Amino acid sequence: MSELKYDQLLLSSINNQEEIHTALFTYQSLFLSSIEPDTTNARFLPAVLIEDADAKLFVSRKLTKKQLLNKYHGENHVIIGKSCMINCLKYASEDWKKANQTIKTIMDLGDNISVSELIQAPTLYPLENGRYRVLTGHRRFFALIYANGYGSAAQFKVYDSKPLLTKVKQFQENASREDLPQYGKLQAFQSALMEIDTLNNARLKNGLKKLTVKETATNLGISMGAFDNYNVLTRYACVISAYESGLSLPFVKVKKVVLETESEYKSKYDKSVLNITDKTNISDEIKDRLFNKKPTEKVEKTFKVKPIKSSSTIKTLLTTNVMMLDTGIDWDNVNWEDHLDVSDTMEKVITFLENTQL
Q1: Same domain (yes/no): 55, 6
Q2: Residues of the domain holding 257
Q3: With 293 labelled, which of 98, 163, 213, 352 sits at a CA distance of 20 to 30 A?
Q4: Closest by alpha carbon to 144, among 72, 26, 52?
Q5: Closest to 20 in 3D by CA, of 135, 165, 126
Q6: What is the pTM of this model?
Q7: Is residue 306 part of a domain?
């Protein structure tokens, strides 16, 4: 679907006051060979699906890995067939390692399917010429092939047409699953937010307001707290890269690292607005902290003093007991342990002296 046509469909739905998330569906029994995975899904595994006859020959050692590679152009992919999954990505690379982890979970799921029913059917939407694409449940789809073969049939939840917010639906499933890797969840969140941005642009063209933060979180199917977590974690690309490289720390701990690094950097360099260079420096520091490349330096908080224009103000500050002046400050209630409170008090004193003839 072209970007222009997609925007037009969104505008049409909004004009007709249709519910964006509403989509009709039925449960259908379909041949797995009529279905293809979504290569843009954050959960996608670069897979080549092979015929049952070839899978049988490979399992019985009558067909070699090299022969399968040549026949199906399987280099840099994972070959999937009945009772076989072959990792053909570059050996020992990060992609190869990630694929190995995914392969194990798919095989375990496939073994479970062989002895029991699949509880939650993958969801699909129709393409052309009687074919379908996986919307959610890629691992379940691959597990069905591993368990029963590419030529087998299974029941699927099939939408009448492609949902307008496909990435939002994919994120909703990823976010609700505790067993899925953090890396895929963060990628799915970014993709879903891009769809929300497109929706907001369509709403503005229609004279409507953008979705509020609360409405956005509701559309994504997560709480405001979870939305804030995802926002912080996707603020710096190094966090996603770290998870992609094998980081397994909980989101809450990594969020704390990000916020502490930002706060300390702003305090150290007296920054309120961060430019590209600042963000690059913070990103490098976050990366070091996540992988413990160097000890965290404790940054002492500094007091912020309002710029002083008059030398007489400085003289008064140095030679007069300002607490005796009629500044309107309740000195008994100043919290001298609170940097913000002390800085605010200092600003009030300077403002008073600048505007008063002593």
Answers
A1: no
A2: 236-301
A3: 98
A4: 52
A5: 165
A6: 0.71
A7: no
Residues 203 and 107 in one domain: no
- CB contact burial 279-294 (16+ within 10 A = b; e otherwise): eeebbebbbebbeeee
Q: Are residues 17 and 82 in the same domain?
A: no
Alpha-carbon torsion angle 105, 109, 114, 119, nearest 10: -170
Q: What is the pLDDT of residue 340?
A: 76
Residue 98 in any domain: the answer is yes
> Last residue of a domain, which of 234, 256, 275?
234
Cβ 143 vs Cβ 179: under 8 Å: no
Going by their DSSP bridges, the two strands 78-81 and 35-36 should be labelled as unpaired
String of DSSP letters for 334-352: --TT-HHHHHHHHHHHHHH
pLDDT digits over 81-132, tens only?
Answer: 999 999 999 998 888 988 998 999 999 999 999 888 777 899 999 998 899 9
- Over residues 267-314, the pLDDT tens digits come to 999 888 999 999 999 999 999 999 886 555 555 667 767 788 888 888
Instruction: Give the count of domains, the chain.
Output: 4
- Which residues face 36 on adjacent strands? 133
The answer on 177 and 118 residing in a single domain is no
Is the four-CA dihedral 222, 133, 196, 229 of positive or negative sign? Answer: positive
Half-sphere exposure of 54 (CA within 13 A, CB side): 20
Q: pLDDT at position 58, please? A: 97
User: What is the average pLDDT value for the chain, to the nearest integer?
Assistant: 87
